[in-house]
Amino acid sequence: MADTLSSGAMSQMSGGDVSFPPIENGLDYLCSVVDHLVKTGEESPGARDLKYAVLHLQAAVEVLLKARLQAEHWTLVFKVPGTAARAKFESGEFESCSTEETLARLRDIVGLDFAAKDVTALNKLRKDRNALQHYGLTASGPATEARAGRVLDFLVGFLDEQLLSTLDAAVVDRLERDYTGHIRRGLGEIRAFVRNRMNRLRPELDPWSPRVVQCHQCNQFALLVDGQANRCHFCGIDWGEQAATGLAEVLGSFGSPARCPGCGENELVRGVVTAYSGEELALCFACSEEFGSLTECADCEHPFAPQDGENLCSTCFDDEHYNQMQHFYTVTNPEIG
User: Fold this and answer.
1) Confidence (pLDDT) at 3
2) How much is the pTM?
């Protein structure tokens, strides 16, 4: 680590006690994240580093978002604001709102706007933390670092715009010296790690750019859809059939993977953007074929590519034609029925 957080950054009270007001508490968590992720020389974060980076980053998210909510009104951090009591608030003996509810209140009550990519990153972090806390988590080191960098980037902007701007200049200077300077340098090194890794991968991925999509784990355009391994070269993981499900879950707009009009496998993901086109299309993770404009069949509701304005896929059209012919022969030849 280039430099570490000194114990002098803590707010010391008489008798050796330590006080961490909300903003300072969140900043201290972020310094811990940087210390766990950014190493010197050739050293890489180990499993324990990644574990505590995830745990402390989620803790920072909760503390800092709620600090902004508290600045609007202290009752808003209660799970049920109608039950808020000042004595409970000051003692900390109350159940606070969840991260999802905090975001909703910041949006609906405070009037803040959050980019969809930031909300996605925050939700992914929350799921990782929950898995780590309760079930255990297996994840790629580079992917964890890249995702942490995205959330850290969001929090630094949130700090500047929503929290630090409300403090006295002298306080901001102290926090910059004790915390935020360290965090900004760490964020720069994480960005550099991601950028350098992607630069090393570019010669390998560029020839396949029409089949390279954004990985649902690391958020980098490094997942090569070949219909078999579906490997993310940034994560170093072969996702196979899980790639379609994972990306569809992140995109969200079209639900689960659909049946491919080409190969018939249920691995077609719509709304995908490739590194080549930059435009949304449908891509099959089983046969790696891409499709432009698709329409849902009026009968089976599976997507298909209409040739002349028809509203039925070829399978349903053939079935409909067969049924009509059967009906015709039954009517004209009752003895057949």
Assistant:
1) 33
2) 0.74
